[in-house]
């Protein structure tokens, strides 16, 4: 049984090197992913229910013990999905971590890192090819789902725009395609809610 007494779920051998994360971050990501999956497919037994409650309790106890974007985003998504009373606290922390130097959604970078690069041979007046790490992209997908589940359209739109202009990441990392489809399908259901009379728009001026 992979779930420990503290409620955490350890990654299997094939997952042990996930995102080059620390041992604690690996536990948080695996526990959050398992909790989200269990909630999605449905709790069918007392054993399932115990697993869900213990996993949620583990995540709640570690809200202040994680600072990296990906585990925090996955944790926040799982806590929102499982109706945790501490979900808003996790979302507040996620909002602080995912605000870049300009005050917009994004993952802060050291000064020496550039936010974007131009493709070779393309005019400097062309739109830039925005770059991001696979870990940041994955974190953004779970952030999008978390904001969408909270019906926070304003915040979700910022994340969706960030992801849209970095969708080339999916060409190199097809393992994220399913998560991306799920995230944008969920977001689209919020953005085109007939009660809101809104349409999904990812276009920018210029």
How does this structure look, described?
The chain is mainly alpha-helical and 206 residues long. The protein has helices at residues 23-41, 46-61, 69-81, 87-97, 134-149, 153-164, 169-172, 177-191, and strands at 116-117, 129-130. It is 51% helix and 2% strand. Helix 1 runs parallel beside helix 3 (69-81), helix 3 (69-81) packs parallel to helix 5 and helix 5 (134-149) packs antiparallel against helix 6 (153-164). The termini are far apart. The model is unreliable at 112-127 and 197-206 (pLDDT under 50).
In summary, what is this structure?
Helix content is 51%, strand content 2%. The protein is mostly helical. α3 (69-81) runs antiparallel to α4 and α6 (153-164) crosses α8 (177-191).
CATH class: Mainly Alpha
String of helices and strands: HHHHEEHHHH
Q: Largest sheet, described in full? A: 2 strands, antiparallel
Number of domains: 1
The CATH topology: Glycosyltransferase
Average pLDDT number: 83
Our count of helices gives: 8
* Largest sheet strand order: 1-2
Radius of gyration: 18 Å
- Characterize the overall form: globular
* Count of individual beta strands: 2
Amount of beta strand: under 5%
Q: pLDDT under 50 segments (min length 5)? A: 112-127, 197-206
Report helical residue fraction: 40-55%
Output the structural class. mainly alpha
CATH architecture: Alpha/alpha barrel
